[in-house]
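B., you asked whether I could sanity-check this one before it goes into the benchmark set. Here's the sequence:
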Amino acid sequence: MNKSLPRRLTSHSFMQTGQLQIFHQFEAGPIEVHWHEFYELSLILAGEGSHVFNGVNYELKPGSIFLLTPADFHGLAPLPGEVFEIYNVIFSEEFLEEELRRLLFDNNRSYLTTFTGSLFEQAVESYRRIETELSHQQPGYHLVIRGELTNLLVALARHGATTMQMPERGGISDFSHPAIRKAITLIQHHFREDISLPQIAGQVRLNPNYFSERFKAFTGSSFQRYLINLRLEFAASLLRVSQVPVTEICYASGFKTLSHFERVFKSKFHQTPYAYRRYTFPVDLEEGRQLAAI
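And here's what the prediction gave me:
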């Protein structure tokens, strides 16, 4: 990955040979704000700097590890004189079995934390095994890779439960219904896509009318309102931290027309997307401080 990459990184471009790829890279300059169609698990091996994760600026240092879903966006930059050494594993949703998906996402949390000591050493070894197995592709290599990735994600879920917690994506008043929990995760990871209530209800095996009632009871919001709110929060965060054109943000957030996007944005934030950008302060990745919008 480098500064010239497109803002939206597609599965087709980065996973032509399968459902998982690994990259061992060195970055001396900033990586601009972007988002993915896939999941990404990244570990900082060396270097210090800043990380804009869903519009919030965090410190990165050796041992920093973070998990990105297709709903997240981020950008990062090393401090002057520093070079990031990074292990990245990108993978498709097929690698997240149901039990692992519940462990990671039922608590409505995103993950950015720091592994230290033996935990860091074990994580590095897991990345190296994935890299070796993917390179050599000996019989059973996919089983080893799946096992190592699962180990990393379980460690992240356990460690993340007691360390830094990212802002939640929408409140839930009651997680007692397993189908609604699964639906919430599906919506939060795919809200930028053309999804519908009947489609999500079908995936969690509920009648659409019953699903609609239960969803509103548990979230306090209709399906459509919940979906639009996620899209608007994503758009607002991008407006705060990037100079991505408003039209591109509109479509990247899941809206089909600019006029609809502008109308619902103004209804929620009481100003147009253009005015919102003018009066917010995007994070400057290179200097790690906030600057007035251009």
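One thing to flag: The chain is about 45% helix and 20% strand. Otherwise nothing jumped out at me.
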